[in-house]
Specification:
The chain is of the alpha/beta class. It has helices at 40-47, 70-75, 93-100, 109-119, 121-125, 136-148, 166-181, 193-199, 217-222, 224-230, and strands spanning 2-11, 14-24, 29-33, 55-60, 63-64, 78-81, 154-158, 185-189, 202-207, 210-216. It has a 6-stranded mixed beta sheet, with helices on both faces. It has a 4-stranded antiparallel beta sheet with strand order 2-1-4-5, covered by helices on one side.
């Protein structure tokens, strides 16, 4: 579905991604693991059109994506939930969700809103509340729900568990698994490697801008280097 080949991305003179190559197949959850500064968020930003690669290719279902503007990337079926949520703090929950569907003109918006409320009943309870007054967990639910309102085929998730209590982390990951089982493909960036690998089908490890390891979730979870570096063993 999504393929990256030989991707080089720079911040000025800083070489952030070095020949990154990875693949996300339809209906998979693929985890991208790595330490802070390894290039995980840069990879997602490049896929979503927020950054432009200097070299390499990105294809979505065989169509070139590198250099396509961010709004066109959304129109092609990719939604990005950025690190830190980036909700519209002064808008209500309803208005934030409506913003997720800003490119749509189809008749499925109401049905997708119901889907979001089924996944996150708390958002329905808070529908008129100003988003900036929500708890951290509720804001993460809103960020994911807003992305789902774009009706994406591919969902990019950047650190969805950041700053959340353990019980909320489990809830968020159960919901991510449910979203995938409903048919949405997911590329997941996550510091909590154990949780990420518990729901992922496959994964990649990125270090200093380069992919250094790839395999099934089970293979990565059983790899001694991964266990030592990312699973605390």
């Amino acid at each position: 579905m999504l393929r990256l080949d030989g991707l080089d991305v720079y911040y000025g003179e800083i070489h952030a991604l070095r020949g990154v190559a990875l693949e996300v197949r339809e209906r998979e959850i693929v985890a991208l693991l790595g330490n802070n500064g390894a290039g995980k968020s840069t990879t997602l930003k490049t896929v979503s059109g927020l950054l432009r690669p200097r070299r390499g290719t990105i294809t979505l279902e065989g169509r070139p994506l590198a250099g396509v503007s961010a709004h066109e990337v959304v129109a092609r079926g990719i939604a990005h939930v950025p690190e830190g949520r980036r909700i519209f703090n002064r808008l209500s929950v309803r208005e934030n969700l409506s913003m997720g569907a800003y490119l749509r003109r189809d008749r499925g918006i109401a049905g997708d809103l119901d889907r979001v409320f089924d996944l996150f009943p708390r958002l329905k309870e808070r529908i008129a509340q100003v988003a900036g007054t929500l708890s951290g967990g509720e804001q993460q639910m809103l960020a994911i729900g807003r992305a789902l309102m774009a009706n994406p085929r591919l969902l990019l998730l950047d650190e969805p568990s950041m700053g959340l209590a353990p019980v909320l982390v489990e809830q968020i990951f159960a919901t991510i698994d449910s979203i995938n089982r409903q048919g949405t493909t997911i590329l997941l960036v996550e510091q909590n490697a154990a949780m990420a690998l518990s729901i992922a089908h496959r994964g990649y490890v990125i270090e200093t801008g380069s992919i250094v390891l790839a395999g099934s979730a089970a293979e990565l979870a059983g790899n001694a280097d991964v266990r030592r570096a990312y699973l605390g063993e």
